[in-house]
């Protein structure tokens, strides 16, 4: 009986003792169940830092989303290489860009940038979802690549750029309620029976003064940088 009461009291009192003593308990020394629970509950915004600080958390949180602020995804090796080079440039100036972002973008447009690059294959091989918080740029040359990667993408991104070959049905799946600015380059496939839906969708989207919808068909841009 005494042991039972002691175990209950210790369960509630020990965290207080640790707090008062300001003891630092290494993540590796925590009980597995506690670490697993922490990995499941930690906020999306803290996931990346959590994985970096605690290597063991990479496996424990493998089912959680992989978080990116600005992400470029492609199914082409040459575009992946070029996109990676541009990502390094964007990361160098990311602090300064945030301060002058509105001036660079203007009121009715935006200049797409990204800090991370993924291939479609890498994206679909991840255990967790791909969570994007700011800007999502996709340039897939094959419609089938969009079919593969779209189910893996989620997030609160407000800027969306779509290039290559994509159907209107696929594009709509990426335009969630929080997306404000949309640019579609390349070959947007819209079937006859979808015309009315496309026009009405665009009309509803641009009703807000904070939203834009830009389409330039049959045009393959060089990563939107010229």
Task: Explain the overall architecture.
With 226 residues, the chain is α/β, with parallel strands linked by helices. It folds into two domains: 2-60, no CATH class; 66-217, no CATH class. The protein contains ten helices and seven strands. Strands 1, 2, 3, 4, 5, 6 and 7 form a seven-stranded parallel beta sheet that branches.
Salient structural properties:
globular, alpha/beta, DUF2313 domain-containing protein, single chain, 2 domains, 226 residues
Write a compact overview of the structure shown:
The chain has 226 residues and is an alpha/beta fold. It has 10 helices and 7 strands. This is DUF2313 domain-containing protein.
How many separate domains? 2
Helix content: 40-55%
Number of helices: 10
Average pLDDT, to the nearest integer? 79
According to DSSP, the number of beta strands is 7
Order of helices and strands: HHHHEHHEHEHEEHEHE
Q: Whole-number radius of gyration?
A: 23 Å
Low-confidence stretches: 219-226
Structural class determined from secondary elements? alpha/beta
Distance between the termini: 76 Å
- Taken from the alpha-carbon principal axes, the silhouette is globular
Approximate strand percentage: 15-25%
Biggest β-sheet description: 7 strands, parallel
Organism: Panagrellus redivivus (Microworm)
Protein name: DUF2313 domain-containing protein
């Amino acid at each position: 009986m005494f042991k039972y009461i002691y175990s209950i009291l210790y369960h509630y009192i020990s965290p207080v003792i640790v707090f008062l003593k300001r003891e630092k308990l290494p993540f590796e020394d925590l009980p597995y169940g506690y670490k697993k629970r922490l990995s499941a509950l930690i906020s999306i915004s803290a996931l990346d830092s959590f994985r970096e600080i605690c290597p063991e958390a990479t496996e424990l949180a493998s089912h959680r989303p992989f978080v990116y602020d600005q992400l470029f995804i492609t199914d082409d090796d040459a575009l992946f290489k070029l996109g990676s080079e541009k990502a390094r440039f964007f990361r160098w100036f990311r602090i300064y860009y945030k301060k002058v972002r509105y001036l660079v973008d203007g009121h009715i447009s935006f200049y797409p940038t990204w800090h991370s690059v993924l291939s479609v294959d890498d994206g679909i091989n991840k255990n967790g979802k791909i969570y994007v918080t700011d800007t999502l740029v996709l340039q897939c040359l094959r419609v089938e690549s969009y079919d593969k990667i779209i189910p893996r993408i989620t997030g609160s991104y407000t800027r969306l750029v779509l290039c290559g070959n994509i159907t209107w049905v696929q594009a709509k799946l990426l335009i969630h309620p929080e997306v404000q600015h949309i640019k579609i380059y390349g070959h947007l496939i819209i079937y006859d029976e979808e015309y009315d839906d496309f026009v009405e969708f665009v009309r509803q989207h641009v009703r807000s003064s904070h939203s834009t919808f830009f389409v330039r068909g049959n045009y393959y841009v060089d990563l939107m940088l010229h």
